[in-house]
Structures are given as C-alpha cells and as structure tokens.
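Input record (one chain):
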Amino acid sequence: MDKDLFGKALLDYYSNNYSEDLITSTSISDEDVLPLPYLFRHFSEMPKLEQKALHLSKGKVLDVGCGSGSHSLWLQKQGFDIKAIDISEGAAEVAKSRGVLKVEHKSLLEETETFDTILLLMNGTGIFQTLEDTPKYLKHLKTLLNPDGQILIDSSDIKYMYQDDDGGYWQDVNTNYYGELDYYLRYKDEEETPIKWLYIDFETLNIACASVGLNCEKIRDGEHYDYLARLT
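The corresponding structure, as predicted from the sequence alone:
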C-alpha cells in the first residue's frame, strides 16, 4: 500500500470525484474491475456471508480492514461498540468522514485492545499474506479476544482456478501453497506496489488454527467456493 491508491480511490468517490474504478489482478488471473460503488454498499447489497457475520457479531467489535466503513456503520447503527482499523490512510479517513466514531489508521499487528468479536471480511485471510505467516497472525488475534470472544473470517478455496478443461489440476508442486497470490492494483494509470494475498481453504485454516490453540468452525458456505468461519 505504498501509494495508497485504494485510499485515493475511496476518497475520490466520497468526494464526488468518481471517474474510474479500481483495476485488480493476481499472479494467476487477468485484470478485473473493482467498482468503487461496491465498496460503499449498504447491508442489503452485501453478500450473504457478510450479512451472516454481521448478524453473529456480539459485544465490543473490531472491524479489521474496514475500507470505507460499510460494515462498521451498520453495526454502529445497531448499537454496537465498534472500532475500525485499516492500513490505508485514505480508507480510514473516509470511514471517519462517513460517521464511524472509532477509526484508526493502523495494521492488525499494531492493535492491542481486546474485543468480543473480531471481523475480517472480504477474504479476511488475505492479510495473512502467506501460509507460513498465518500462525503469527492467528496468535496475535488470539491475544485480542476477550473470554468467550470470537473471530469471524471469510475466505475462498481457489483450487478451481487451477483446473484444466479435462477436470485435472495444473498446480506446480514445487511452488508455495496454491492460495498464495501476488495481488496487483491499478488506479488512474498508477500502479500500486504488489502485495502478497492469501486465499486459504477451510481444512488448511482449521489445521493452522489448531496449531495455535484456536477452534475453527465453518458457519456456512458461500455461493462460489467461499465460506465463513468462526474461530474461538
């Protein structure tokens, strides 16, 4: 996020300076459009997994990677004590401008408060970056949980993206875990520094959680190889 193009795009949209969408791609996929209006969606426009996670929230809530603050705003309106954080300075500024009362520009690993619910949505495992780093993030998340607290996180099993026309898979066994991708972002002819982004299948997440003393329960499957899990 060196250039914070994500934050610039959100600020442009919020400031009625919307002229272009974000362009994303990964090391295994072509360019795709990420419409800026989608990042400002209302509850009724959210995927079922996100709606379920918000309905399951309880107590004091941390919204990790809050973006424009859509999840936080909905929870705040329901009366929750919600704190939102994002590594994008522009995103944090937009979330605050939209009315989220507690917003901080910081990374998850910098957080020290404790919570009853921690939300990591829109492929929340992405911030773990690699499978090797996943236990480090899970251990830190565990320190942020109050007694009987929960982490609600979503991800996808992207094995299908490696499928051949004949139904076989073309994964290179000499490379890292297949869900570890390089993620590219472009906005108004500027390119962001590529980042690592992790998609993790449920069984692999379950194993990683067990290794750090967290229980992992699948809440429900989504419509396209995605799922919502609860960690306790």
